[in-house]
Amino acid sequence: MGEEGSWRREQRRGLATSALLLLGYFLVPLEQDPNALRMVLRSAGTLLVVSVVAALVTGQVRRQLAAGPPRGDAEARSLIRLAVALVAGVIAFALADYVVASNRTGEFVGLHSRIDALYFALATLTTIGYGDVHAQGQIARVVVCAQMVFSIGVIATGASIVVKQLTARRGRG
For the domain with range 2-24+35-172, which CATH number is right: 1.10.10.10, 1.10.10.60, 3.40.50.720, 1.10.287.70? Predict the structure, then answer.
């Protein structure tokens, strides 16, 4: 069982962590608040979360680029962490989109729920852009510009690394 069992354990742990991140996305309270100070604090908190996740994903991508293909348990764990960080990146931007849409009427067209925000974040990441949900206001456009740059520069690179290294791992197995 050795290395293969450890790899399977890491995969299950990564899937569980990703599922918890997704659950947290749907459960975190974000209802509008008439208190302006609390809204500013929530918005700042969202910006902080997005920034921290961006830094973590960027760090994981850099480490994977430097490390090359996974050769043992430590590298496999690092690959799983990268995959989880990519999920966290998508969720963080979906959260930011939802916060903007729910607190500033007219910033987004067609974004009314957390599902809409997740859908929009994934459509932006994959550059599909169906057009049914789109940024209309200036704040939303700034958030989406940051999301596009991050998606192309970091998430796409990270996803490419995950796929390439998983393929290399399967070829050896």
Answer: 1.10.287.70
Integer Rg of the chain from CA: 18
Interatomic CA distance for residues 28 and 108, integer angstroms: 21
Cβ-in-10-Å burial (0-12, 13-18, 19+) of 96 comes to buried
d(CA 15, CA 31) in angstroms, rounded, equals 28
CB of 145 closer than 8 Å to CB of 137: no
Residue type, 96: A
**Amino acid sitting at position 97:** D
Mean pLDDT by 10 residues, the chain (173 residues): 70 87 85 75 76 76 67 69 83 90 92 96 87 94 89 75 72 62
